[in-house]
Design brief:
Layout lengths: L1 E5 L5 E5 L11 E9 L2 H8 L9 E2 L4 E8 L11 E4 L9 H4 L25 E4 L2 H4 E3 L6 H4 L5 H11 L8 E5 L3 H10 L6 E6 L2 H9 L4 E4 L4 H8 L5 E6 L4 H10 E9 L11 H4 L5 E3 L8 H9 L9 E5 L4 H9 L1 H4 L3 E5 L12
Parallel strand pairs: 9-10, 9-12, 10-11, 12-13, 13-14, 15-16
Antiparallel strand pairs: 1-2, 1-4, 3-5, 3-7, 3-16, 5-6, 6-8
GO molecular function: oxidoreductase activity; zinc ion binding
Keywords: Metal-binding, Oxidoreductase, Zinc
Organism: Streptomyces rochei (Streptomyces parvullus)
């Protein structure tokens, strides 16, 4: 089969690799029908994630069909159409029992495309299949469902829920890439007074408006002042960092009000300064986190009922064999306008939800 293989910083290729086999009785092998590229994959290619060894197949998001399961798998069987989660969960360790699957101690967590071969291939082995794949309702297309493998649960859990967004809040989302846009969309579920999106790219700010942002700001034009003006000088109740560079994290801490929340979602490859000389007195809560995907079943139900604007985030589609071209388009988003790229076959027929 073919897969997209990391060969070290700046080197990768779509090439022939061995088919995956079952290694444990809790494994499943999935034929990949749709896959996408994440900003974290770009970090890996830059060398920002040294745990990824050369020779690893990248990718941690997919939709596909079960082709083989181990003897201990109970919840899915060959022929089932499933979402492959970006997080693998053993279901037995202390963290899994608490629903904190991202910190799994039993060989799970973020392992696909990180510690083991991932989803950007024609087939993928998924450990602990009972908790790590989700059967898909017919009302959700492959193209829409693949966005629920990572970006929507990440934005919702690590951004909106960790940030404790409440009705009437002022929410600022710094970074209007796919994660930031999903944060805008899911923050709206909590009826904030206003959502402000901050980015450098005009096209992404326009996308944020379409997804529900009430105001937008160019990151080069003192967005802190806009936030102050809109809040009577108080600052934002919740600021979500969705970029992952020191400058944006420090900007977030300047925009939050006393008693507010800064929810860091971005993947940081360099140290950021924590200005405790200013923050120690402000009762500010700062959260970090890796997604647990415990919200995925809820988000799937919402997508099936048309409550999540997943389709608006997909700007480019490719067949799997054009993986290298897709990476170029996604990495060059400033020029291509790419938000999410989806690779795979033709869209499946959608089964309309029944009405009573």
């Amino acid at each position: 089969m073919k897969g997209y293989v990391f060969h070290g910083p700046g080197r990768s290729a779509w090439e022939d690799i061995p088919d995956p086999d079952l290694k444990e009785p809790t494994d499943a092998v999935v034929r990949v029908d749709a896959v996408t590229i994440c900003g974290t994959d770009l970090h890996i290619l830059k060398g920002d994630v040294p745990e990824v060894r050369p020779g690893t197949v990248l990718g941690h998001e997919a939709v596909g069909e079960i082709v083989e399961v181990g003897t201990d798998v109970r919840t899915v069987r060959p022929g089932d159409r499933v979402l492959v989660s970006c997080i693998t969960a053993c279901g037995r360790c202390r963290y899994c029992r608490e629903g904190v699957y991202g910190q799994c101690l039993g060989g799970g967590g973020w392992i696909l495309g990180h510690l083991i071969d991932g989803t950007q291939a024609e087939y993928v082995r998924v450990p602990y299949a009972d908790l790590s794949v989700h059967p898909l309702p017919g009302a959700v297309t492959d193209q829409d469902a693949v966005l629920l493998a990572d970006i929507f649960p990440t934005a919702y859990e690590v951004g909106v829920l960790n940030g404790s967004v409440r009705p009437g809040d002022t929410v600022v989302v710094v970074g209007a890439g796919p994660i930031g846009l999903a944060a805008v969309a899911t923050a709206r579920l909590f009826a904030p007074e206003r959502i402000i999106a901050v980015d450098l790219a005009g096209a992404r700010l326009e996308a944020a408006r379409k997804l529900g942002a009430d105001a937008v700001a160019d990151a080069r034009e003192t967005p802190e002042q806009l936030v102050a003006d809109l809040t009577g000088g108080l600052g934002a109740d919740v600021v979500i960092e969705a970029v992952g560079v020191p400058e944006t994290f420090e900007m977030c801490t300047r925009m939050v009000r006393p008693g507010g929340h800064v929810a860091n979602v971005g993947v940081h490859g360099k140290p950021a300064t924590l200005h405790l000389e200013d923050l120690w007195i402000k009762n500010v809560t700062i959260t970090t986190g890796l997604v647990d995907t415990r919200s995925t079943p809820t988000l799937l139900r919402m997508a099936a009922s048309g409550r999540l604007p997943t389709a608006q985030l997909v700007t480019h589609t490719f067949p799997l064999e054009r993986m290298e071209e897709a990476y170029g388009v996604f990495a060059g988003a400033a020029d291509t306008g790419a938000l999410k790229v989806v690779l795979g076959g033709p869209r499946r027929e959608v089964v309309a939800p029944r009405t009573v």
